Amino acid sequence: MALTDVQIRNARASSKPVKITDGGGLYLELRPSGSRLWRYRYRIARKENVYAIGEYYLDKRAGHVSLESARRARDEARALVRQGIHPSHQRKDQLRAQIDQNGETYEAVALEWISRKERDWSVRYAKQVKTVLKSDAFPVIGARPISGLRAADMLTVLRRVDQRGAPTLALLIRQWSSAIFQYAIATLRAEQNPMPTLQGAIVRPTVTHRKPLSRALIQLLFRKLEVYGGERKTNIALRLMLLTFVRTIELRAARWDEIDFSRAEWRIPAERMKMREEHIVPLSRQATTLLRDLRRITGNQIFLFPNRRHADRCMSATTLNRALERMGFSGKGSVGFSSHGFRATASTILNETGFRSEIVERQLAHKDRNAVRASYNQASYLEERRTMMQQWADMIDQIASDKGEGEARTAPARLDADPMKRAANIIGNQLIAAMERRSGEIVPLGKPRRTG
Known about the structure:
By secondary structure, the protein is α+β, with helices and mostly antiparallel strands. It has helices at about 5-10, 65-80, 85-100, 105-115, 125-140, 150-165, 165-185, 215-225, 230-245, 250, 285-300, 320-325, 340-355, 355-365, 370-380, 380-400, 405-410, 415, 420-440; strands spanning about 20-25, 25-30, 35-45, 45-55, 260, 265-270, 280.
């Protein structure tokens, strides 16, 4: 006679286990402890076996197997028995497959892919990949088996990022995810890459190229630097950005052990370069003079430009742009120039002046796709680059000291446009200088140049 839920709940335990039959091999084992355990008895090759289905809890807590569920499990087990398969063996295989699958989640495969690739990446790029995936992809799909992810799942991730106003990050996630899926396919953990079908799902934002400084604005920049009331090392950093036109992070994180004064060279190690290749910056006389000046300020520290609050870290990413904003080169109503624009400035003027483009590109550390030619160019172009860097520094000096200031006078300078703002800026500079005097670093104040 088939069991009812009432019978199961009213059954009383005795000193020995009691079996209450339901039918079709299914029975409830009532133990002296009061536990109610579902069992399925079956035969394969004339040998009796018992398959444990689960437990019936009176309070229906997590893991409770109801009468209906137990009968359904019995029917599934009976179908396996007819095929000569032990239900317990099947469950172990499924558990093992699930364990294996848990190690093949999107997050697990992504982290494995990163560990294989990061040796060829810069530290900064590796950090970017990990940070973006950890914050935007892993919380949504990280725990899911990569083999089960489809285009719709990935589109959800991309749209979440795009809709918060970060389309560039969404495009990067699409790019990295495509590589992750390809790696999963190559390691037999996925069969398809859904990312190519999402081409065009995210609209690529219009690229705004870094605005270069004109000769007139370079002249104006030097006039501003002469009266800049901020830290001397920030002043030197801006001048070196123009003289060396390296990437901002390459200058901010520069270390004193990279500077060779005897050879007048700055050798940036491969791990700090975007293209993972050592980069040599020939130092002009002007750059060397600035570095010797800087050495008196920060020469006893690791970084050329240490962080004000944490000496074991380099200058923050916003310091240079804030200085440019204070001088009126960025921000509302300005020419919209940022520290990244120094590279565009040098590239524009050097190419216009007639220097060979391959020399300029090599000094900008733009990677040559031909590895053999790149190795040759690194050595053969060095002397030409050394000459170019000195001529560039001399050209900057000439531009800065040029008396023909017609264009410079009319160049946009946000803080000078309003007399009240001009006065406030002068007072601000004086306050900054006073604070620096108290901290032991004397920064001479220059007389602000009149404008308008």
